[in-house]
Specification:
Elements: E1 4-9, H1 16-28, E2 31-37, H2 50-63, E3 69-74, H3 78-85, E4 89-94, H4 97-113, E5 118-123, H5 133-141, H6 152-162
Parallel strand pairs: 1-2, 1-4, 2-3, 4-5
The structure holds adenosine-5'-diphosphate (ADP).
Adenosine-5'-diphosphate (ADP) is lined by residues 9-11, 17-18, 21, 92-93, 95, 99, 124, 128, 131-134.
Length: 166
Amino acid sequence: MKRTAIYPGSFDPITLGHLDIIQRASEIFDHVVVAIFENPQKKGKHMFSVEERIDMIEGSLRELGIDNATAATSQGLLVRYMEEQSIKVIIKGLRAVSDFEFEFSMAMVNKKLNDNIETLFMMTDTNYSYLSSSVVRELAGYREYHSDLITHYVHRRLVERFGADP
Ligand code: ADP
């Protein structure tokens, strides 16, 4: 049976920190679904549309040659999407203890909703422990782009949105 894992997030935009987790998960699983889930509390507060974020995920996966990961999106609850798609494993990246507290309770809730679902946590690479999509967005606002934070593909999309480096 094909082993599939889902890596949920907002990916606004996808960073090299996310892609490091995806790369490592793609070596353990046959297929990784990188899934954009709209947090209803953050609705309308994203910088990029779902379509733009999917495009940046797909472009970055191609650029890094990760060929067993695909992008997806759903409006519903993660666990219900996983049941529909017969996916049993959630991958989460952890950067700091502060991530852990939130992710721990999310994992408990998901387990309550479906006892067959497992959440696996992967530690961030130390190079990316400070990196988040909000750091990338903030720097892009000043037209600062760093190739050790994002792929060339995302860099091009940010330049289209914010303009070239000063
Ligand atoms: P962000 O927190 O950057 O806005 P998301 O909400 O899209 O990112 O997060 C999706 C998942 O990726 C979460 O499990 C989050 O902990 C993880 N993640 C985000 N950035 C990193 C990173 N630099 N290293 C490891 N995991 C990360």
